[in-house]
Amino acid sequence: MLARAVGVALLASTVFVACPPREAGAEFLASGTGPALAAAQAVPQSAPPVAIVDGREVTLSWSATTLTGGTPAESYIVRRYDTSNVAQPVLAGCDVVTSTGCVENNVPIGAWTYSVQARMGSWSGVEGTPSATITVATSSLVLDPTPLGPLPATVTGAIANFLVAETLTYRLDSPTGPVLAGSPATVTSSTSTAVSVTVPAGTSSAPHSIFVVGSGGSFAAAAIDIAIPPRLQSMQMRDVNGNGKVDQVTVVFDDALATYSAGIAPWTLSNVPSGGSLSSVVVNGTTATLTIAEGLGAANTAVGTFRVALATNAAGIRDMNGPQSSFTATAPTDSAAPARVTSVMQDVSANGRVDRLTVTFSETLQAYSAGTAPWTLTNVPSGGTLASVTVATATATVAITEGAGPLDTAVGSFTVALAVDPAGIRDAAGNQASFAVAPTDGARPIRQSANMFDDNTDGRIDRVVTAFSETLAPFTAPASVFALSAAPSGATLNSVNVVANQATLVLNQGAGAANTAVGSFRVTLTSNVAGVRDATGNLSSHVATAPTDRAAPVRVTSVMQDVSANGRVDRLTVTFSETLAAYTAPTSIWTLTNVPSGGTLASVTVATATATIAITEGAGPPDTAVGSFTVALATDPAGIRDAAGNLASFAIAPTDGARPIRRSADMFDDNTDGKIDRLVTTFSETLAPFTAPASVFVLSAAPSGATLNSVNVVANEATLVLNQGAAAANTAVGSFRVTLTSNVAGIRDATGNLSSHVATAPTDRAAPVRVTSVMQDVSAN
């Protein structure tokens, strides 16, 4: 290499003579003030330096250069060349060196060669041969490979090849990314320096880099592995279909999740409300949705001891970079509003009018202070209205003011609605309940009425109809669920027929006397699952209860009478099937037609169950036969009626209650022999066949000592055939008397009214008969 510079130096003790430069070196003469003149010396070419790199420091060393005269060189010039052999400025520490080595600090990054040129005064030797090429490496950052997590976390490592004294900034993902906390703040050595950097919370679990940026332009980056599994952010328990049973849990993580294919395997659910079980899992974005098959237990939307746990699974919950998530048994947040489990309409007073609504929910409720505001009741049976609301545990009790409408325990179009209200129905988590629904019928059918009837108007009850407060379910129970006590006339239960809201009890008429009064008659209904009940199955029952009398008084007898026993009807006695109310009606409600003997209505009096109709006797012949006699009674609110106001009416021929009366008794001497032989008694009506012994007729003092032979009855006449007596002929009645004693087979009418009479003289129908015709000479002359 040719000399790049030549200098001349004069020394105090030596005289140097300058010579033309040479390729091999430089020569000069040395002279002095001493006794001898020194010889001329040359500055030879320096040896190549040895360069050693340590970070951004290059340590150079070389062999000392000795002039040809044996004088050591005074100093050395160090030069640095890039790969293009272009000289670069040498940094402080190696610009002019008086020793055989130096350290160049903060050497720029790159490949370099160095050369050394010895100097003596102003003289320079030829520049030495360049050193071997050395490389100052790029700034570097090496971080510990341990995956980070959870955050915040500190990563440690080392930097190298940074400029000494430059300040450092630590950033995420780029030289201009978010600033991170790190140390040291300033480079104190270009060799390996320990660093620590804090990765803050919230940094996603994804590939990241940490950049160390020096103020002098140095920078280095290294990748970090943030192995943070997706973390549980929230977990919500829900009742999606609002039926009071948990059917979904949504689990939200803090990172987007990878494709999920693990099914239900990684999940463990314990104490799921209502006994539910995990059915399936679907993952989308950051959310895992767990579908729960509802259990068979009672409705329950309270978290209670419900817990969800997640195990790691290679196909399970993990982020896009693979870290698998897990968490221990954790209670979800309650996002299931209290659900209406039941809403039961009730008739607490059992009077047939709705007075309460009991609504149960799927969990315990918070303290309630919303009053009636959130509640709307529509079409309450009987016209009831909302009164108040109280809440205890999981039940809301809605009190209802009974309406004035008809008794009604059917739901019908009754609906109840609950609106959300921050002070209303809500659980401990603040989930507010709402619904609009028809309540369940929890009110049993109540007996509205029970009416006793005499359908065939014969004076004996044959039907009881009990009406209830709502439509009844089909009746399949034995009739004996209804018990009858003291039924009028001894009636018994035959069958029960239920239609709509009525139960009809068909009765077997009793053999007792006609009776349409309720008296001590009572009907009891016992509850029976197949008996009287509504469509919801609410069983009806009632204690022994008297039915309402809907059986009008029935004419039991209407007896025509001849009280005066003179053969003319003078009274009609009508008895009814029950005690009658006070009678104040006119006689005009009674119509008597064809009264025997021409009698007419006089007056009517009523006592207990009997109406007595006085008849003014007619002027016609004595007649105790009913004939075409009829009596009719019209209804009248003040007339014949029972205590319940049931009005009686009828039109009928009365029963003959008038016994045949002897109208005449005629004594005859049919053979005109002066001795009576027949007695004919005529009665006031046709007689029944006579089968009694003749002795029912008793003769006393019969003329000529006649005796009774036989009795023959035809129509209204009884003919007594006599045995003529042995005494003298006699056709005079004298003291002859005939007595008739009553006998069930004797003289009686068709109705059985028995006739009798005391000893009575017959009428003389026997003409005087010539007994003797004696010629006499009374004067005996």
Notes on the structure:
There is one protein chain. With 781 residues, this protein is mainly beta. Strands 12-13-16-15-14-17-18 form a seven-stranded antiparallel β-sheet, with no helix packed on it. Strands 5, 6, 7, 9, 10 and 11 form a six-stranded antiparallel β-sheet that branches. The relative contact order is 0.05. The model is unreliable at 1-38 (pLDDT under 50).
Subunit organisation of the chains: single chain
Spatial gap, N to C terminus: 250 Å
Tally of strands: 58
Q: What is the percentage of strand-forming residues?
A: 35-45%
Summarize the structure.
With 781 residues, this protein is mainly β.
Secondary structure blueprint with pairings:
Blueprint: E1 25-28, E2 41-44, E3 50-54, E4 57-61, E5 75-81, E6 87-88, E7 96-97, E8 101-104, E9 110-120, E10 123-124, E11 134-136, E12 140-143, E13 153-160, E14 168-172, E15 179-183, E16 193-199, E17 208-214, E18 219-224, E19 232-238, E20 248-253, E21 267-270, E22 277-284, E23 287-293, E24 307-310, E25 327-330, E26 333-334, E27 340-346, E28 356-361, E29 375-378, E30 385-392, E31 395-401, E32 415-418, E33 435-437, E34 440-441, E35 447-453, E36 463-468, E37 482-485, E38 492-499, E39 502-508, E40 522-525, E41 542-545, E42 548-549, E43 555-561, E44 571-576, E45 590-593, E46 600-607, E47 610-616, E48 630-633, E49 650-652, E50 655-656, E51 662-668, E52 678-683, E53 697-700, E54 707-714, E55 717-723, E56 737-740, E57 757-760, E58 763-764
